Amino acid sequence: MGGPSGEWVISDEFGQRLGCGVSASVILPVWFLLVLFVVDDPLAVVVSAVVLVVTVVVAGLALRRARRVPRAVRLEDGLLTTEARSGRSSRPVAELTRVDLGTSLGVWPLRLTFTDGSVVRLPRELDDLDGFLAALERHRPGLPIVDHNPPEPPADPGARR
Fold first, then answer.
1. Cα–Cα separations (whole angstroms), residue 18 to 3, 5, 30, 65, 119
2. Of 19, 41, 45, 157, which is least surrounded by CB within 10 A?
3. Among 32-36, 53-57, 87-91, 149-153, whose mean pLDDT is lowest?
4. What is the CATH code of the structural domain delimited by 1-150?
């Protein structure tokens, strides 16, 4: 299927936040390892050891997830192509069944669901999210796009600015 094509990349701000979060998750275990060698209290040693193990697991998961976060999304010739550090993946847009915009503390608030039940997760911080969603609708008319975010309350005209 031909038609409009485009490329969307994640914002620099999101990339910086992701980098800071991954850096913090890698540096934090070093802190708790140092605490293990400095503290003499047995309870503090046990707590530091447990927290060290938890932070090492979190750091491993953060590094793995950071490699899988798509950095760019392309829509051309009826294919949705995502590019991450871990590689490139392409799926036909015709198999797209639903788009969900969610609220999350994580980096996956935009979910694209396909006919086989698989889900492609994208960061919502694309350079032109509205343009991306409009391009998906042009390629797949009638595509349900569900926004799970609460609507903003209307502005109070009498409020001070």
1. 33, 28, 19, 10, 21
2. 157
3. 149-153
4. 2.30.29.30
Domain range list for the chain: 1-150
* CA–CA distance, 97 with 157 (Å, rounded to integer): 40
Cβ burial 58-86 (10 Å sphere, 16+ → b, else e): ebeebeebbeebbeebbbbebebbbbeee
Can you read off the two tokens belonging to residue 44? 């503090």
The pair of structure tokens assigned to 13 is 């701000």
Task: Report the alpha-carbon distance of residue 55 to residue 65 in Å, rounded.
Answer: 15
The pLDDT tens digits for 35-46 are 778 888 888 888
Instruction: State residue 67 phi and psi, 5-degree precision.
Output: -70, -30
The pair of structure tokens assigned to 11 is 């914002």
